[in-house]
Amino acid sequence: MRRLLRCGFGEARLIRDVGIAGCGVAGLACAALLRREGVHVVIYDKLERPQPLGSGLILQPVGLHVLDEIGVGDRVRALGAVIERLFGRVVPSQTVVLHVRYDAFGRNAPTGVAVHRGALFQVLYDAARDAGAEIVSGREIVGAADGRFAFADGAQSPRFDLLIDALGMRSPLSQTPKQALRYGALWASLDWQAGFDPHALEQRYERARKMAGVLPIGTLPGQQNQQAAFFWSLRGADEVAWRAAPIEAWKDEVRALWPETSAFLEQIGSHDDLVFARYAHRTCGSPLGAHAVHVGDSWHCTSPQLGQGANMALLDALALSVSLSRQYGICARVAIARATTANKATNAIVRRSGAAITHANSRHGHTIITSRPMDGT
Question: What is the pTM for the complete model shown?
Fold first, then answer.
């Protein structure tokens, strides 16, 4: 086993035990990758039964590369849907304002793969467990100090050589986002319907006041039916009014924007069939906190406009694991700093692009994009 060193207060110690806060994409990927280095890993999650939140996402080639490193890339590809393009029109003019093609990189260029968040979660959960990670549920983390997590019930975890914060946008171990973005989104996972491109993210807009989208996301493990992620933009300030109004009134509004979605809307019987997600922008100056290393949305949360949150989380996990494994004989603080440098350029491009699109949307303007997709390199 390769032994890893960290810097304590004036001393170097072996990293043999790592505690991870959060059983999401970032936490599970960190666990699977660190276990292959022989590190003892314990993941803590506040839910009694850890589960994903959200509907679907697009894994870009860089994210798929990390999954290949973990050893689960082929399983994810088998569950997901190949995405060849991103396409959007403004209604009623039908003007194309979004047309992003993967084949702009060449005929044999790698594509994206859209997956159900539940499928990605299950694959990573199995990988972490199979690698020997210990997962402790029902433990809400509210703080960290001196190598220990503090739980909401007043108890503490055992002491670890390294703590990793993978609790996401609202992590109590990270900086609080200044404010939520004006627009969030309603999400639902529905059965796939004929008439839509099975290899494309399709969207329709009324200026930027309204947006609907359909994304093929493949299947869940153990199931055969193909699914789609359906989403609708909604201002956070309007959520209460949306819930108070009849669901049929909202469905009429969606049909007016995109009549072809009727078959999807028939699968929605009440407000509870949709999940409302809020988003925020926040980037810590460094992933090195006073008591933990931040990865994924705990370090850099952004809007879902580019769908890159999971890809960046996977990249963080790989960069951290590789940097630690290669720095035998020096402290982990230096290794983590090098991992930070390696990821900053990619993350900055993604954040700025997402912020630009979000800013355009918030001003009710048109965003016209005709290019090739970001591959994270």
Answer: 0.85
